[in-house]
Design goal:
Blueprint (H helix, E strand, L loop, with lengths): L29 H13 L4 H4 L11 H15 L6 H11 L7 H10 L7 H28 L6 H16 L10 H17 L11 H7 L7 E6 L5 H15 L4 E5 L4 H13 L3 H6 L4 H10 L1 H4 L3 E4 L6 H15 L3 E5 L15 H19 L3 E6 L3 H4 L16 H5 L2 E6 L21 E8 L5 E8 L4 E4 L7 H9 L34
Parallel strand pairs: 1-5, 1-6, 2-3, 2-4, 4-5
Antiparallel strand pairs: 6-7, 7-8, 8-9
Helix pairs in contact: 1-3, 1-5, 1-6, 3-4, 6-7, 7-15, 10-11, 15-16
């Protein structure tokens, strides 16, 4: 008789079959890709809504990439876009079978009835592509992080740069065709032609804006001078004109002065209250009223000041990207270049190599954010030892020829009065008292010129010089284009603001304010 086995609970063995339920697939929206491609083939005008959003590479399925590529070629050649023309173009490309054949194209057109919401669908496809790019970037960063030979600061900069590009939805491409660049350039020229005023960011100085057509995107502008000439005052005046008059977001990185000191100087400029009174708080009742009323212009201005001392170029690039993302800054000012460091890089190198690294990175930042970057710079003491008018030269740029090489515009502030020179080189231009020149010594995309500006020392601001204040001989030459030089006003150094830049940290020579 067979023995009855006890009732033992059955426990199945663990399956060796891999379950896909918890597996991971790259982010995708294949159904929306099918809907978008089908809509494009039944309604040609719908491509106008997404042509600037999508490229072939954003599609997840390779078949869809081939189909969109064919559609894009037809659009570029101004050809009709439908089931038959797309199939024909795929045949020309030798990719019809790889794209699924004619039957697959028919299926795509049958899945949609209209092109409604095609832009919304396209944006979801783009979002999925960005997610996949984030995964790729993160994987690369993880792999490089395990590599002991990788420079950690280079890796941090690379990671933040790539993430910034993804955040902006602007993903780098290795190259662009001549055709696409010509179309882009023509479009920009048309926009400039139809736009009233300047093509770039206005400085607020008429003759300077006329020469440059405003500060242009991706340009690196160097403003250099010896201590006491007015570098900080000039850039603060520009920042005020840009942020207050034009409501254009401006970022200032001040490595020398605190944010409170800078804003106090801007308050003096805006309210036309003596800086000495603001420092001591010794204001009359009407001056308090004047302060409270006029300071509102500054309160409402899109002006952002960072006064982090000993800022490295790596930190500056990171901060600038965040300001661009959060506040949409359109111009960046650095005061001043020689006070920056390159972080942990080039510790065994000399100062000239360090300045070269900083200069290159400032130019790269201008191109990356597509905004003008203005950097102040010191001039060497060779200016002081030179005889004659002591006008600055490009060779006077301190510590590195890379500054001259990387910059799109190099300008100098020259004030003969500082050197006790009473007359301008051109005797007809009159005395130098209260006057200065902004010398455009390098202009990669334009002409050179010496521009004179007015400066009110007790308020710490530059202004355009009114022709009424200039000798008639100079006005006449300006009108007929005979002379490129213009008068300006510049206050006596005794009335100017104090600044630690005057200490000339590297030279240890004495100087006057600004």
């Amino acid at each position: 008789m067979e023995k009855i086995k006890p009732n033992i609970e059955y426990k199945p063995k663990k399956s060796t079959v891999i379950s896909l339920e918890k597996g991971k697939l790259p982010p995708q929206a294949v159904d929306l890709e099918e809907a978008v491609l089908g809509a494009l083939m039944i309604h040609q005008k719908s491509i106008d809504e997404i042509i600037d959003l999508l490229t072939a590479e954003v599609f997840y399925k390779i078949q869809h990439q081939y189909i969109y590529e064919a559609i894009h070629i037809l659009f570029k050649d101004a050809q009709p876009i439908d089931l038959l023309t797309v199939a024909s173009q795929l045949k020309k490309n030798g990719k019809l079978e790889a794209a699924g054949g004619e039957f697959y194209l028919i299926q795509l057109t049958q899945k949609v009835s209209s092109s409604a919401h095609i832009e919304f669908h396209a944006r979801i496809i783009l979002q999925k592509y960005i997610q996949r790019q984030l995964i790729v970037i993160s994987t690369e960063i993880i792999e490089k992080s395990y590599d002991e030979t990788t420079d950690v600061f280079d890796l941090l900069d690379e990671a933040e740069s790539k993430l910034y590009e993804v955040a902006q939805g602007i993903l780098k491409r290795s190259s662009k065709t001549s055709q696409s660049l010509v179309i882009q350039a023509k479009k920009r020229i048309e926009e400039i032609a139809n736009k009233e005023g300047l093509s770039g960011i206005p400085s607020g100085f008429q003759q300077l804006d006329k020469l440059t057509s405003g500060w242009q995107p991706s340009d690196l502008i160097i403003i250099a001078a010896r201590p006491g000439m007015g570098k900080t005052a000039l850039t603060l005046s520009m920042a005020r004109n840009i942020a207050v008059d034009h409501k254009i977001p401006v970022a200032i990185f001040s490595l020398e002065m605190s944010a409170i000191q800078l804003i106090t100087r801007l308050i003096s400029s805006e309210t036309e209250l003596d800086s000495e009174k603001l420092r001591t708080g010794n204001l009359q009742k009407y001056e308090w009223e004047q302060l409270n009323v006029k300071v509102k212009n500054l309160e409402d201005a899109p002006l952002y000041i960072d006064d982090t001392p000993s800022l490295s170029i790596f930190d500056l690039r990171a901060k600038a990207r965040r300001l661009s993302s959060q506040f949409g800054i359109k111009i960046l000012i650095v005061d001043y270049l020689q006070l920056m460091t390159d972080g942990a890089r080039n510790k065994s190198g000399n100062r000239e190599q360090e300045i070269s690294t900083i200069s290159r990175n400032l130019k790269a930042l201008a191109k990356e954010l597509d905004i003008p970057v203005i950097a102040l710079s010191q001039l060497s003491r060779a200016v002081e030892t030179r005889g004659g008018s002591k006008r600055p030269l490009l060779s006077d740029l301190r510590e590195s020829g890379a500054i001259e090489q990387d910059a799109d515009i190099v300008s100098f502030i020259y004030r003969p009065e500082y050197y006790k020179i009473e007359q301008w080189d051109d005797q007809e231009a009159g005395p130098t008292e209260g006057q200065a020149e902004l010398i455009i010594a390098k202009h990669r995309n334009g002409s050179l010129k010496d521009i004179r500006l007015k400066f009110i020392g007790k308020f710490g601001k530059f202004e355009s010089l009114d022709t009424a204040e200039m000798p008639m001989e100079i006005v006449s030459k300006m009108n007929y284009g005979v002379d490129d030089n213009y008068n300006s006003g510049f206050i006596s150094p005794n009335d100017a603001f104090g600044s630690s830049m005057n200490d000339d940290h590297l030279d240890n020579d004495s100087s006057v304010p600004f």
